[in-house]
């Protein structure tokens, strides 16, 4: 059992490295072990194919016969663009498959394990199940609820301000914290901002300093698409994807102008004068996104929190105070009692350069 835990931890690490790189598929890791020695490794490739198992089997070659495969999710059993992974494992002569939990996709759920057992492969489940469930939470949410996992990031002063009263915000946190944010972007399928942030900061929202990675989709949430066409996002939409989620009342000429820049437009339902957060995430889920990294602004953050659609909070807090006149990181939420406020559980807190990073999960 100790060996199973160690090898599965290895496979989970491989899968985590592919987060943000392989949507709409899950980031799966696979390790093949023969006589106590790792003979094959693989993880879901960029864009979702090839899957982890065939890559590990190719590396293992003939050594796969009689070996154990540690896979971080039930091997797929349906014919898609590639043959099922459970068939590949059987054909390679794998004797045992260890997996944490079943796939929640109805095309797979339980059927992959059943196929393996039917063909004489020993199947062990439940190893590192909690860790794997967290790693695949975005994929499961997309399959089961039709929406991606949402991480809300805030970089603010000690008193919770993201800018001075005049709008100056660069830079509240230090270079180490900013580098960590780029790493977080890389581990998500998309980076999302509201129109106010897109106008005020004119961000690129790309991953920089982390080598050759599949850039996340840049998502702008703007009912009227009131973001300048001279912005960095519009001018680079043909190089790195930009999706604009808008309301039905966005001007036709504005829509056409953004489409001519190369952006993809997604119309969404509007409630109370704003894009409905449930409809927003459903639209992103239909496009295949499993993990979204929201970087504000305040109104978008407030709407997601109020709708109980934030799965993880990541904060970077600097040792400075901007006072009550500074701009808050989260807009009005209408919370009158503490019992009404969304609660999160602290997962991690550590120094990042001169700042503090704290990460919280849904209670």
TrEMBL record:
E.C. no: 3.5.4.26, 1.1.1.193
Record's signal peptide: none
Positions with a binding annotation for substrate: 185, 205, 208, 295
Pathway membership, UniProt: Cofactor biosynthesis; riboflavin biosynthesis; 5-amino-6-(D-ribitylamino)uracil from GTP: step 3/4; Cofactor biosynthesis; riboflavin biosynthesis; 5-amino-6-(D-ribitylamino)uracil from GTP: step 2/4
Catalytic activity: 2,5-diamino-6-hydroxy-4-(5-phosphoribosylamino)-pyrimidine + H2O + H(+) = 5-amino-6-(5-phospho-D-ribosylamino)uracil + NH4(+); 5-amino-6-(5-phospho-D-ribitylamino)uracil + NADP(+) = 5-amino-6-(5-phospho-D-ribosylamino)uracil + NADPH + H(+)
UniProt-listed GO biological process terms: riboflavin biosynthetic process
Binding site for Zn(2+): 51, 76, 85
Residues involved in NADP(+) binding: 155, 169, 171, 197, 201, 297-303
Keyword hit for Mitochondrion: no
Cofactor: how and how many bound: Binds 1 zinc ion.
Cofactor dependence: Zn(2+)
Residues of the CMP/dCMP-type deaminase domain: 1-124
InterPro entries named among the record's database cross-references: APOBEC/CMP_deaminase_Zn-bd (IPR016192), CMP_dCMP_dom (IPR002125), Cytidine_deaminase-like (IPR016193), DHFR-like_dom_sf (IPR024072), Eubact_RibD (IPR004794), RibD_C (IPR011549), RibDG_C (IPR002734), Riboflavin_Biosynth_HTPR (IPR050765)
Active site: 53 (proton donor)
Highest taxon of the lineage: Bacteria
Keyword Oxidoreductase: yes
One MF term in the entry's GO annotations: zinc ion binding
Keywords (A to Z) from UniProt: Hydrolase, Metal-binding, Multifunctional enzyme, NADP, Oxidoreductase, Riboflavin biosynthesis, Zinc
Family statement: In the N-terminal section; belongs to the cytidine and deoxycytidylate deaminase family. In the C-terminal section; belongs to the HTP reductase family.
Annotated function: Converts 2,5-diamino-6-(ribosylamino)-4(3h)-pyrimidinone 5'-phosphate into 5-amino-6-(ribosylamino)-2,4(1h,3h)-pyrimidinedione 5'-phosphate.
Designated name of the protein: Riboflavin biosynthesis protein RibD
């Amino acid at each position: 059992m100790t060996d199973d835990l160690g090898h599965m931890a290895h496979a989970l690490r491989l899968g985590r490295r592919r987060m943000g790189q392989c949507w709409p598929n899950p980031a799966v890791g696979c390790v093949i072990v023969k006589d106590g020695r790792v003979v094959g490794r693989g993880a879901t490739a960029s864009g979702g194919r090839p899957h982890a198992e065939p890559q590990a089997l190719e590396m293992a070659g003939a050594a796969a016969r009689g070996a154990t495969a540690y896979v971080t999710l039930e091997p797929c059993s349906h014919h898609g663009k590639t043959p099922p992974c459970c068939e590949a494992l059987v054909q390679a002569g794998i004797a045992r498959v260890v997996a944490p939990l079943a796939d929640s996709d109805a095309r797979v759920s339980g059927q992959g394990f059943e196929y393996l057992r039917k063909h004489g492969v020993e199947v062990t489940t439940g190893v590192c199940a909690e860790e794997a469930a967290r790693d695949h939470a975005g994929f499961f949410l997309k399959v089961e609820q039709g929406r991606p996992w949402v991480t809300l990031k805030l970089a603010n002063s000690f008193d919770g301000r993201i800018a001075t009263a005049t709008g100056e915000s660069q830079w509240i946190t230090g270079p180490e914290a900013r580098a960590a944010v780029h790493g977080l972007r890389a581990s998500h399928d998309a980076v999302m901002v509201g129109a106010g942030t897109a106008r005020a900061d004119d961000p690129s929202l790309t991953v920089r300093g982390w080598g050759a990675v599949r850039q996340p989709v840049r998502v702008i949430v703007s009912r009227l698409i009131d973001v300048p066409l001279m912005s960095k996002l519009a001018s680079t939409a043909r190089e790195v994807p930009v999706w604009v989620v808008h309301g039905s009342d966005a001007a036709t000429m504005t829509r056409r102008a953004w489409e001519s820049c190369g952006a993809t437009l997604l119309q969404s339902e509007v409630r109370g004068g704003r894009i409905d957060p449930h409809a927003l995430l459903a639209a992103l889920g239909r496009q295949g996104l499993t993990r979204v990294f929201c970087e504000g602004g305040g109104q978008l953050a407030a709407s997601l929190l109020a709708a109980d659609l934030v799965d993880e909070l990541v904060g970077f807090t600097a040792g400075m105070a901007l006072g009550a006149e500074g701009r808050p990181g989260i807009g009005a939420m209408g919370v009158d009692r503490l019992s009404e406020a969304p609660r999160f559980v602290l997962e991690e807190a550590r120094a990042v350069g001169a700042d503090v990073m704290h990460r919280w999960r849904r209670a």
